[in-house]
Amino acid sequence: MKNSKIDFDVFIIGAGPGGSIAGKIAVENGYKTCIIEKDVIGDNGRYKACGGAIAWELIEEIDYPEDKISRTFESLELHHVDGIRFSKKGKGVTIWRNTFDKFLSDMAIDCGAILKESEPLIGIEKTDSFYRISTKKGNYIVKYIIASDGATSTTLKLLGWPYFKKENLILTITKEMKTSKEFINKMLGNDAVHAFFGIKSLIPIGYAWLFPKAETITVGWGNQINLVKNSREEFKKFENLPFVKNALQDSKLSIFKSHLIPVGLRPKLYEDNVFAVGDAGGIVDPISGKGIPYAMMSGQIAIETIKTCENRDKLDKLGIYYEKNLDKKFLRVLKAKRIARDQIFQNDENLKRFLSLWEKYRSSEIIMRRLL
């Protein structure tokens, strides 16, 4: 039952994929919904460091416009620095996150969600069964909170939730390198994205990538944060690989960003009407670092859990239902992948074995069928 004292039934912090989908689903289920975003979104969205490779199935599912796709690819080329190369076939696209996120936030707005951009969160206070939210622009009384504000979530920090273990965080570096479409096609192919591995001589736990867009190559590198000694020097090792050096010749740097990606779950995902979704909860593939589809699904599941528990008068079971529903959809697989990740990156022999299997199977199939 809605309470007249509250300003919003569902209050979402962060207008990324998880927050926007949560906003859309919340409105569709009859909840008065607000999304706040600390950055200015504007007409063109806001830049976020991200490789931007997405499976074709997700593009079809959300009916993403063709003119917003930067490039379509048919294979993921897996390079080991020893010289071994595997080719994983599968259709996907590369997108710019500012364009993709703007598309999703517009979907939420079109459904009736209120979006307040350039409004950072500064305080949260629990009062009875509600929360008082303070931002730089106002105060709000809300019932449910969706924390979708990334790995360094301000929301969960203010609430005193435990942070990720260091071994569950990847430090990434992203460079956007401007070049020409013709040169990308010549050096990287017109239908491929590239990932690079090597425990001893490149990255102990993680990988690097060249993801081409229309006239830009997104150059990325990610390593487990507690193993990073000098990120710039370690990134240079990747840039100096002959294949990479040739692909980036004469290109011009347009953006340089660092970013944290969680590769293991936060110690808790729910407490007292607060849900952690996407990166805020560490709901990310621990092997590939893929997070967009899991952010979107966890945002949807959070709202559907609220609706189910309200209808069944089981609000005291929200946390149990949330994690149970996540497990049914994908969380059980992500947990298994986190365990397998340590085995995969134990040595280069294990890694190459995994890459050879990944060429033919989905990573979830490899783990759940114990093919390693």
Features:
single chain, 372 residues, alpha/beta, FAD/NAD(P)-binding domain, D-Amino Acid Oxidase, Chain A, domain 2, 2 domains, eight-stranded mixed sheet, 34% helix
How does this structure look, described?
The chain folds into 2 domains: 8-46 and 99-164 and 266-339, 3-Layer(bba) Sandwich (FAD/NAD(P)-binding domain); 53-95 and 166-262, D-Amino Acid Oxidase, subunit A, domain 2 (D-Amino Acid Oxidase, Chain A, domain 2, 2-Layer Sandwich). The chain has 372 residues and is of the alpha/beta class. The protein contains 11 helices and 16 strands. The mean pLDDT is 96. Strands 1, 2, 6, 7, 8, 9, 15 and 16 form an 8-stranded mixed sheet that branches. α1 (17-28) links the parallel β1 (8-13) and β2 (33-37). The protein starts with 7 loop residues before the first strand and ends with a helix. The radius of gyration is 21 Å and the shape is globular. α1 (17-28) runs parallel beside α3, α1 (17-28) packs parallel to α8 and α8 (292-311) packs antiparallel against α9 (318-344).
